[in-house]
Amino acid sequence: MQFDDLLTEQRNHRSTHIDRESTLEMVATINREDHRVARAVQKQLPQIAAAIDAAYPKFDEGGRLIYVGAGTSGRLGVIDATELQPTYGLTSQQTFGLIAGGTQALTTTVQAAEDSPELAQADLGAVHLTNKDVVIASAASGQTPYTLAALQFAQDQGALGIGFSCIEGSPLSKLADFPITPVVGPEIITGATLLKAGTAEKMVLNMLSTGIMIKTGKVYQNLMINVVPTNGKTFERAKKIIAEATQTSTLAAERALDRAGNNVPLAIVLIETKGTIAEAKTLLDATNGHVSQAVKLSDKG
Question: What are phi and psi of 223, to 5 degrees?
Fold first, then answer.
């Protein structure tokens, strides 16, 4: 398929006269198109769920969550990886993004980088992939050479490949172990895939990474429990999370946090099971750090 024939590059008849609209009409047009994005992503929920179920055991066993892409797609991947680190207590070795052209491509356009398969192979080769790793490759068109080569290289090394694109039957969707393809249609501004395609990618990446984090025990109930208390603000947040998770007072939460050596999951298990520190540690070790499973295991005991 020629680039100009791609659905993401065609003109959108619903926004043909957007340059003549009032400001309110203009933003209403954009908003109506955004509603189409949510519906397109909704149709991909089974594929997204399948990708999560395949990815989380690998991450749980010490694999990494690696994002690859070029341009807008690459930048959104880097953002998702970066935000996972403080939100879920991950390190920059556990999740990171690779973008065509390197870190300078985050703020400037690096000419021709997205057209280089060799650059992709070098970037992926440098991170020493294993069969425990999960690689999420994103390209609105589904045919960016850098992204395709990166995904192929990752799969050749045994990594799990998830592919995001907005074109059905694209080379990327055919290559990926788990293709996710929300068809958002022509952009509001012809060819500006930072708009609907970018919104769709952000929604899909949010679901993928959040699902993986939940499945690997980084969430208890709907609370992010892997916060590391390093200053007054995060210490107060940790106490609040423990108190809300266990339906106890902040004073009791503070005492448990102190006994647990500022380990929030351990403090929660300590309160929920009413056991000793040693018993709480044993439960967490037995469940690979999953608080929900540790509490259930205690109930069975």
Answer: -110, 140
Binning the chain into helix, strand and coil, the percentages to the nearest 5 are 60, 10, 35
pTM above 0.85, yes or no: yes
Can you give the pLDDT of all 301 residues of the chain as single tens digits? 555 567 777 888 888 899 999 999 999 999 999 999 999 999 999 999 999 999 999 999 999 999 999 999 999 999 999 999 988 989 999 999 999 999 999 988 887 899 899 999 999 999 999 999 999 999 999 999 999 999 999 999 999 999 999 999 999 999 999 999 999 998 899 988 899 999 999 999 999 999 999 999 999 999 999 988 888 888 999 999 999 999 999 999 999 999 999 999 999 999 999 999 999 999 999 998 899 999 988 876 5
Quick one: how far is CA 20 from the chain centroid?
Answer: 38
Instruction: Name the H helices within 107-195.
Output: 117-125, 145-156, 171-175
Residue whose tokens read 């108190």: 243
Active-site positions read 83, 114
Strand locations in the chain (E) = 65-69, 95-99, 134-138, 160-164, 178-180, 219-220, 223-224
